[in-house]
Amino acid sequence: MTSPAERYARWKTEAEQERAAVELTAFTARYPFTLDDFQLAAGRALEGGSSVLVAAPTGAGKTVVGEFAVHLALARGHKVFYTAPIKALSNQKFGELVDWLGADRVGLLTGDTSIRPEAEVVVMTTEVLRNMLYADSDLLVGLGFVVMDEVHYLADRMRGPVWEEVIIHLHGSVRLVSLSATVSNAEEFGAWLQEVRGSTEIIVSETRPVPLWQHVVVGDELLDLFVDADGEAVVSQGPGARGDRRVNPEIERVTSFSLPVDERTGGARGRGYRGRKGTGGRHRPRGSGQHRPPHLRKGRGPYEGGGDSGRGERSGGGGPGAGPHRHGDRSGGALRPPRRPDVVELLDDAALLPAIMFIFSRAGCDGAVQQCARARLRLTDDRERREIRAVLDEQLGGIGIEDEEVLSLDTFRRAALDGFAAHHAGMLPLLKSVVEALFARGLIKVVFATETLALGINMPARSVVLEKLVKFNGVDHADLTPGEFTQLTGRAGRRGIDTEGHAVVLAGPRFDAPAVASLASKRTYPLRSAFRPTPNMAVNLLDRFDLSRARETLETSFAQFQADRSVVGLARRARELEDTADDYRAAVTCDRGDLLEYARLQEALTDREKALSRARAERDRDRTRSVLGDLRRGEVIALPGGKRRGYAVVLEVDRAVLGGPQVDLLDTEGRRRSLRPGDVPSPPAVIDTLRLPRQDSLGSGRVRKDTAAALRQRLAGQDDDARAEVRRRAGRSPSTAATDEQLLALREQLAAHPCAACPDLESHLRWVGRWRKSRGELEGVQRRIRGRTSSLARQFDRLTDLLSELGYLAPAGPEGEELHPTASGLRLRRLFSDRDLLIAQCLEHGAWTGLDPAGLAAVVSAAVHETRRDDRAPELIPDPAVDAALAASMRLAAALQSAEARHGITPTTAPDPAIAAIVHRWARGAHLAAALEGNDLPPGDFVRHCRQVIDLLDQLTADEELGPVARQSIRAVRRGLVAQEIDR
């Protein structure tokens, strides 16, 4: 028999569920279709008072769950925050919610934009919410729900930790709605959420709502990647997907052909559907096409039917048995990927437009647009061109004539009118939003984009094309992971728009169909935490909690949760490596002598050779410093390579600069560059002199171009390869390897060793290498095991020791057993930046005082910038105060790096003034073209960088000394196109 209290509790629960069911029913009435099971399950969980983690494929409708959280919060009289990882997504969601709820109920906070922050529903970036939590903002009062869209973003190395800070610090009464792409460890992530947030329902859906077909383009053919036993195409994901699929054997047959060019009909055929300008698929409604293009349907040859009757004849025959000559361009046995305009025409003929073609470089995206323009590709009719022109005139009318050239607006307009465009981070955000709007309306048919487009922007495409399966990850060129492949191809076929989606991979050299099939079959990827303690986090935690509580907070992070769980797996791996190392050690034998002794001698010999090479390089650096210091204005020099190459003329030599001398150069293209000893591997060679104009006149672009022309004329007859000229005139320091006694002795010992005469020496040494590698892996695993337990707390302790040493924390409590932020620490508490501690040091030591608004903007630019490319040298700023501030910042950075190294902390990167001069000119009132003159900085990068500069300047407005100048500096930077972008 139950007690009255238990009966009351059951009645209350049932009443709440009944009331909640009413809200879910009312919400679903908004949609003309029935919600999916995972959406309904998430809604019921939210109604029952739980938080939810929803992991589902791209385009499956996760945002419906977030919108129901908004509905439920408003129905219950609570506030709701909707967070997104980037401002573009925040702006997009803000517009959607305003359309739904009305402008008076929705606010927006993105750092540089504040619209109705006290509204019932506020859209914001995750960083804004983190800052509100640390400041204990009044806007948090009444908060009932937080929606975290794209929560898998917490794996991002730079910005991911912010997500965990928010999840950890949100009040326990707030229900969390976490929306993620499908990840393979959703249960692990959900278990952590349950641990730190309480009741959390984990809802995983692995089914795409729209079927996805996978294809491969080989030459001028579009082939299905997966087929069944009868050779019929098979859906790879979504409704209709089958498990009995296999890789299409036709792909292997086609890609195996290797014929010389002259054996193909008509010689070199660089294009497939020659003469077609994209008419075949333009007028077909989205989703109307069959899963295979008309020319590949069963019973047809690749060129039979479907329109152009002349294609088969031009291609040398029509049917499947026409021979290998029809399978694309192969020269010298290598399979070449098709030209981009040909790919677009092929997709158009197959009714697979609109399409997004992912090209993993900005230059590649712009180049694709140029190639399509040169091919005179036109994908639009007259009506569509009129609509596009109207949008362009309306959206781009505010751009000044003086800026049109630097933005390449003529090229952009012509391409858009023809139905194609680029989309990448180097473009002005305004231009990207125009592309997104035109693509969403079906007016632009093809977008050439970098992978940043895959992050949730609403651009529905019927097909997605991957030009390559390799991309540069910031360190080297690496294969796409299954998660990246899934994220990119997941944009093909959007619910409510398309009946199917198509993912297309272009076959090129070393194409591996099984590898592509493997990528297409693995639809999940693991979520790994990037959380780490930062100086700003440390002072914020210790301003709110004692040391013990602060450490506990770090220990509740997903990073520590994963680390603790992984120790078991690491221990198992260590045992496996121990067994492997023992097996390899048993195989390290030679009947001639001690093989390990021979290997040690060989290693010592290699180490000595490297030491001599380093010593030689150091001598070269010393010579370089000396040669640079002796250069004179007007001398023409040949550069030996490294970060600088080619020819240049010396404009000025600064022998007092830190890390110098620093030489100001003008190259043959009229670009100003600076040269320091570390930029070249050996000294440059002086080959001539050139009469220069006055130093102050070189600020003019025309004067620089004229001077560059004179330089090129003076270099007439010189070797085109400046490095060869350097080798003839200067060369490197001589090698000492031939006379080094230690090296010679090691070589003699190695030659005299008994194992040197063993005929199987190479085989024996391979076993030594395997043993060493396994031992190294074992030691690495053992170090990871030792470092896992309480690893974040130990990092935090090292960080607090450093902050105490620098004066940002001081002992507190009766016996000084606690730490509390000092006045300097409270200033650091307000600084949110990757270089937060360095910025605080600059403020603490007055490095930025005395600057005018433009000068402060330039110095702040260096504090927030990180160069994307190694070959952009900082341009000199003609303001001694700015030069002094940058030099002081560099000195403080060097001192901070030394202190961080002593405490075992990853050093903070030094300020990067690569584009400070551009920001300085802009803040002094120059228009965009003048500010960017002589530089190759993309306008989109400049606008985005100005946003970062304004964000840090805004943080400095609270500073007693710099505040007034910071406010003036914000006004100087936030103008023109920058202001237009921020205010949009």
From TrEMBL:
InterPro entries per record: DEAD/DEAH_box_helicase_dom, Helicase_ATP-bd, Helicase_C-like, P-loop_NTPase, RNA-DNA_Helicase, SH3_HelY, Ski2/MTR4_C
Residues covered by the Helicase ATP-binding domain: 43-201
One of the GO biological process terms: nuclear-transcribed mRNA catabolic process, 3'-5' exonucleolytic nonsense-mediated decay
Compositionally biased region (Gly residues): 302-322
Compositionally biased tracts (Basic and acidic residues): 242-253
SUPFAM superfamilies noted in UniProt: P-loop containing nucleoside triphosphate hydrolases (SSF52540)
Highest taxon of the lineage: Bacteria
Xref: Pfam families: DEAD, DSHCT, SH3_HelY
Protein name per Swiss-Prot or TrEMBL: RNA helicase
Entry-linked PANTHER family: ATP-DEPENDENT RNA AND DNA HELICASE, ATP-DEPENDENT RNA HELICASE SUPV3L1, MITOCHONDRIAL-RELATED
Signal peptide: none
GO molecular function annotations of the record: ATP binding; helicase activity; hydrolase activity; nucleic acid binding
Region (Disordered) location: 234-340, 713-739
Helicase C-terminal domain residues: 342-542
Keywords, in A-Z order: ATP-binding, Coiled coil, Helicase, Hydrolase, Nucleotide-binding
Coiled-coil region(s): 567-618
PROSITE patterns assigned to the protein according to its UniProt record, in alphabetical order: HELICASE_ATP_BIND_1, HELICASE_CTER
Positions of transmembrane segments: none
GO cellular component, one term: Ski complex
Basic residues bias: start-end ranges: 271-286
The species this protein was found in: Brachybacterium vulturis
